[in-house]
Design brief:
heterodimer, A: about 250 residues, alpha+beta, Fumarate Reductase Iron-sulfur Protein, Chain B, domain 2, five-stranded mixed sheet, B: about 210 residues, globular, Succinate dehydrogenase / fumarate reductase cytochrome b subunit (chain B), transmembrane helix (chain B), transmembrane (chain B), membrane (chain B)
Chain lengths: ~250, ~210
């Protein structure tokens, strides 16, 4: 396959950045998208040019490091797939492919296609955990959990924190991520003691990080490589309403 | 957004049901229109009830616009650099047109008040003859008015289709099954409301109401 890539090049956080065109020949349809970028980088290095910086780690679709806006789709055209698991057979010979970093003020560009996603860590630090020391994993049946709750919590726990929801959102909102990280705890018994302080803390941290507000536009779920459902945000909304209406503060000792 | 939107949607239902009285004839429609000014009598003097209702609606509209502006400004600040290549829509068209749709609806409401409340832009403009105002408004030679009304009502329909669902969601609708129901309910509500509003100008246009 012969492709034309238009890639966002930005030397550093202060650089203005621009789209640069690179023709790439002899691409195998069996390559993953990142392998195709590796090929481009090897050629750039051989030619003495600066290779394109992009985030990647496991290349198995579970670590959440990779994240590219490919032709306007977060993680590319294939649904439920991270950019590393996307294969070049999804594209046509001769196609022009636009590759951009996630665009959000909360995710500043570090270099080229690499963005700083520490804003997500701040949301987690504001309550995305249980404070009780729980030790090693207990016997599975010692704490009964309703099947429906276990399934919904597991669905949320599948979030890999890649930031595709923010990238796809017309409002630049990170509400799907926040809701997923909240729901994986709020549906389980272990998450109940801090349920309402957690939701307020995480939503406040989300807003402070500079993410936009959710308008239920529904762009995030189709972009999510793990298919976190949109109704997860409804669970967050309900907890947030309950927390603010009651003035609930159920953190032990606070 | 959700609470003020629901107040405005309730008003839209009442307004549509009132409009449909145009099919009961001139006397009945005019009587209904005059009764609107007298609701609450004799407990409330004069047109007090109407003014209370108008105040509530204006407060709801202003609060709705303020909330929308805050969201729009946050969205703008959250994405300072735009994408060079942006897919139009993955979600729904209605959801992506809420902001500009809202602006169009606001402009329409201003025109609508000048047309059928104050009568300034109405060819008859006689407050004592609401039926006559409506019939003159949508006369076939004033087809452009009917066209504008139709476009505005369709904008309202799109706005409600996403708005009604979004209101349920904001107020805590949280299950996948409930989401399907909320989306269906919002769609049916939007279609019914559009039909209810559009039937009046088209009845006048086709001479069914004259």
């Amino acid at each position: 396959m012969n492709l034309t890539l238009r890639i966002w090049r930005q030397k550093g956080p202060e650089d203005k950045g621009r789209m640069v065109t690179y023709p790439v020949d002899d691409v195998s349809p069996d390559m993953s998208f990142l392998e195709m970028l590796d090929v481009l980088n090897e050629r750039l290095i051989l030619a003495g040019e600066d290779p394109v910086a992009f985030d990647h780690d496991c290349r198995e679709g579970i670590c959440g490091m990779c994240g590219l806006m490919i032709n306007g789709d977060a993680h590319g055209p294939q649904r439920g797939t991270t950019a590393c698991q996307l294969h070049m057979r999804q594209f046509k010979d001769g196609e022009t492919i636009d590759i951009e970093p996630w665009r959000a003020s909360a995710f500043p560009v570090v270099k080229d296609l690499v963005v700083n996603r520490s804003a997500f860590d701040k949301i987690i630090a504001a309550g995305g955990y249980v404070t009780a020391p729980t030790g090693s994993a207990p016997e599975a049946h010692s704490t009964p959990v309703a099947k429906a709750n276990a399934d919904a919590a597991f669905e949320s726990a599948a979030c890999i924190g890649c930031g595709a929801c923010v990238a796809a959102c017309p409002n630049g909102s990170g509400m799907l991520f926040t809701a997923a990280k909240l729901t994986q705890l709020s549906l389980l018994p272990q998450g109940q003691p801090e349920r309402y302080t957690r939701v307020i803390g995480m939503v406040d941290a989300h807003d402070e990080a500079g993410f936009g507000g959710c308008t239920n536009a529904g762009e995030c779920t189709p972009a999510c490589p793990k298919g976190i459902p949109l109704n997860t945000i409804g669970r967050l909304n309900r907890d947030y309403l309950a927390a603010t209406a009651k003035g609930a503060n159920n953190t032990p000792g606070s | 957004m959700a609470v003020t939107g629901i107040l405005l949607a309730l008003f839209l239902i009442a307004h549509m049901l009132g409009n449909l009285k145009v099919f009961t004839g001139e006397t009945s429609f005019d009587h209904y229109a005059h009764w609107l000014r007298d609701i609450g009598k004799p407990l409330l003097p004069g047109v007090w009830f109407l003014w209370i209702l108008r105040t509530v609606l204006v407060v709801a509209v202003v609060a709705h616009i303020v909330a929308a502006t805050v969201l729009a400004r946050r969205a703008r600040a959250a994405r300072p650099v735009k994408y060079a290549h942006r897919k139009k829509v993955n979600g729904s068209y209605a959801a992506r047109t809420m902001r500009w749709g809202g602006v169009i609806i606001l402009l329409f409401v201003i025109y609508h008040l000048l047309d059928l409340t104050t009568g300034t832009l109405n060819p008859v403009g006689d407050a004592s003859k609401p039926y006559g105002n409506v019939v003159a408004d949508f006369a076939p030679e004033r087809w452009y008015v009917t066209l504008f009304y139709t476009l505005a009502i369709l904008a309202v329909g799109f706005h409600l289709r996403h708005g009604a669902f979004s209101a349920f969601r904001s107020l805590g609708q949280q299950t996948p099954r409930g989401e399907r129901r909320a989306r269906t309910a919002a769609l049916i509500f939007a279609v019914l409301l559009c039909a209810g509003y559009l039937v009046v100008p088209f009845a006048v246009l086709t001479g069914l109401v004259s």
